[in-house]
Amino acid sequence: MALRKLIAGNWKMNGSLDGLSELDAIAEAAATHSAVDVAICPPATLIAVAVARQPGLAIGAQDCHSAATGAHTGCLSAQMLAEAGAKMAIVGHSERRTDNHESDAEVRAKAVAVINQGLTAIICVGESAAQRDAGDAVAVVTQQLDGSVPVEADGARIVIAYEPVWAIGTGRTPSTADVAEMHSAIRARLMALLGEGGAAVRILYGGSVKPSNATELMAVADVDGALVGGASLKAADFVPIIAAAASI
Ligand code: 13P
Fold first, then answer.
1. How far apart are CA 124 and CA 227, in angstroms?
2. Predicted model pTM
3. CB 3.0 to 4.6 Å from 214: which of 14, 155, 195, 244, for a disulfide?
């Protein structure tokens, strides 16, 4: 089953009020290529302003706390993100799994909070270079899925982003054969975890996606879009990726 592709930009800790002008061309491209879903996840401080600037563009968050309220200084709940206008939230990005020692169980709790708020959870998984070199990539990702995906969830409310850690920000990408193998393994695991609902989950590829490799990556079976870091900061890079996805 061909799913609508989602091209999501993760601005990480980049961007500014001035930089939001990039959203104008991105929103225009999203409207032009209406067969593809487009989203931008800016820093949380910019979510509400981004929504006000481009109400037609899906804006998301990069993380959220699993609790609704409470003594969690510096954290943001899914309710707060929804109130700011976010339509989705990334959870379990490898940078947070590493920097903030987030476990699969925490990632799952965050995903549940996001879904319960009516938002879409983009759950990130991916192996390190050492794990791939050891031949453990599929086993590692399968374990992350088992621990991070809420099995009671509606498949349409979940997106998986497969982001090999060694491909993030390095300019390196797996071969299309390796991407195909991993995405097929992820699909099989989602079907095992969610039943038929697993067929509705979009599986994004992330890690050094750019205009020059987007077409070949987006054409791989079971690649239902991309989670884009560096190349999402400028419309000049991001718009051709949207166009590439729309051309498949
Ligand atoms: P890059 O596209 O900069 O490699 O980042 C990928 C990523 O981590 C998106 O979440």
1. 9
2. 0.98
3. 244
d(CA 202, CA 156) in angstroms, rounded, equals: 8
What does DSSP assign to residue 20?
G
Q: Which of 65, 127, 163, 183 is catalytic?
A: 163
Sole residue written with tokens 């050891």: 134
Atom of ligand 1 nearest to the CA of 232: 2
Torsional sign, CA 124, 201, 246, 173: positive
User: Which pLDDT tens digit goes with each residue over 194-236?
Assistant: 999 999 999 999 999 999 999 999 999 999 999 999 999 999 9
CA dihedral 171, 180, 42, 35 (to 10 degrees): 120
Q: Note whether 201 and 194 are within 8 A (CB).
A: yes
CA-CA distance, 103 to 114, in Å (whole number)? Answer: 17
pLDDT in tens, 11-36: 999 999 999 999 999 999 999 999 99
Q: For residue 65, report the distance from its CA to the centre of ligand 1, in Å.
A: 22
Could you report the per-residue pLDDT of 148-171, keeping only the tens digit for each?
A: 999 988 888 999 999 999 999 999
